[in-house]
Fold this protein.
Amino acid sequence: MYYSPPVWEHHYMETQFVKCPVCKTKISVSGNPGEKVNITCPNCHEKGFFIIPGGRTEEGSVELRAIVVQGLTKCYNSFKAVDTLSFSVKKGEIFGFLGPNGAGKTTTIKAILDLIHADEGTITINDIDVRTQGKEARKYVGYMPEKVAFYDNLTALQNLRFYAEIKHASTEECSTLIEEFGLGDVGKKKVGAFSKGMVQRLGMARAVLGSPPIMILDEPSGGLDPRGVVLVRDKILDMKKKGVSIFVSSHILSEIQEICDRVGIINKGILVAQDTVDQLGKKLKLKPQITVTVQTMSSAIENAVKKVPKVDHVKVVGNTLEIVCDATAKASVILAVSSAGGNILNLQMKEPSLEEVFMRYTEA
Amino acid sequence: MSMKIDTVTSIAKKEIMDNIRNKWIILVSIMFAILTLVVSYFGSLMSHGWQNLGVTISGMTFLVTLLISIIGFMLGYAAIIGEIESGSMSALLSLTATRFEIAMGKFLGLGSVLCFTVLAGFGAAGIVIGLNVSNVDYLQYLGFIGMTMVFGLVFLSVALFFSTVFSKRSTALGGTIFLWFLFIIILPIVFVGLLATAINLLNIAQESIPTWYYVLELFNPVSVYSALIGITIGPVSSMTGEGNVPYPSWYSPGLLLGVLVVWILLFFILASWRFNQKDV
């Protein structure tokens, strides 16, 4: 995003906060998406430039952003839960937000919704400042919190109708949603008697009330049975088809990898990466893993594979070789195994997973 | 500060519905009715059987101050923090409701619950007493019910504020319990103790009570309510000793009611302000 020379240290990707490469002073840069802004460090007077994130799409139009977080900082006493966090969610995309426990995911989500007051930074939803026009901004958002809770003494239908009234959505929609989320049989029962999974489904129904154009989902699959997980995932994909922008935080990395267009990884309050899973893998230079099963394993086969250029790692498990290598080395590996007398029974190639990307970005 | 009335109404309606469904209203109303009937029938040492409403009110004012303050506190102490702890507040705040609308809706909803229980409980008992005694002053009794509602709303408002101050439901409960002791026991003792330094309490009838004592009393809603009932309905005996201390001429019903309303407004404003600052 930042073009040298001189090479400024880009503090975080797609951010409007940069660090001076010389004196490390944090500098805020303002401009339109895609705009090249000249910068002079106020401290050491080093000069450079920065391209404001967002840029232009391949079609040339300025990318529209559903959520923009710039320089978000939130402290709890002396603990910095989120530190100068900057990212954006494009309109119509599914953005996965990942991080270990306590990384600052929920704090970020709460700040986006103005449930907690940020110490620094700005957040906009559909270009509306959340801090100054929170009520207006939240009109566009459906939210499912990590800890889904309802009024236990009210029925599922009464609960949804209450939220529909507050949201100024149609109360007629409530019965349909209750059916849609598989709660038709218990719609008139008190929520206090519901299982965690049922409450979670009702939470999803509440989030989609009024068909908001932006969804913020904090661990939407937590506590759901496999059927529920599929239901929620399908609902998310269905919403994406309808052009809804979705910001989803989850621990289920395989699910995130499957549904998300881009991911952001937060660790210890800092956004350490933000891109597509493929791009993140490439940036980390993660290599695919080839698994070769042979009829009879021998040390000759193992040694032959180890000698193949661009092979990083070889592990033998029974009759199977687990090889980490460049994708381009695949043919050479097969040839080496065959030449060493290996009769290949099975061959599989696995691309770097989000799990690997996540582990690499969040390791201490 | 713009406020959407329909949002406030929806929140208030939800609070009422929630309390109806957990049978709270019914139980407390029945308790009030039984209390009133018991005090009316058995409460007088002077005579047997049903007493008229004026005597009944005088007989149970102290009990009412104890109960209504507890009920106001119980209704309000978890109104905000309880929802924050359970997680339902974050969902509510993610919608288009503002914090002021939520606080207002909760206050109005819980206030309605409190007023309804007072009206239903005391009202039902009043009808029973009215059927058994002659020369009933229903207007006076309605006045008593109204003043009791205002008194209850003071404690609801204070509890709502406490609900925004603490970060745990349990500490909010502890805080309100302390406050209850403060208003019911500690402040009256402190005030009388201060009075004892100025006059001879054993000869109070002949002593002139200093004005500052009456001013101090205005800082305790329990004393204000007792004085209000004492002035408008009749002598009231309570632990605070007001039964023995004559009220000054400047203690008017308007002033005392005004003080209670100030208590309600002040703590509601504080609750809204604090809630606005709070991280959910």
Summary: Residues 1-63 of chain A form one domain. Chain A touches chain B through 31 residues (CB under 8 Å).
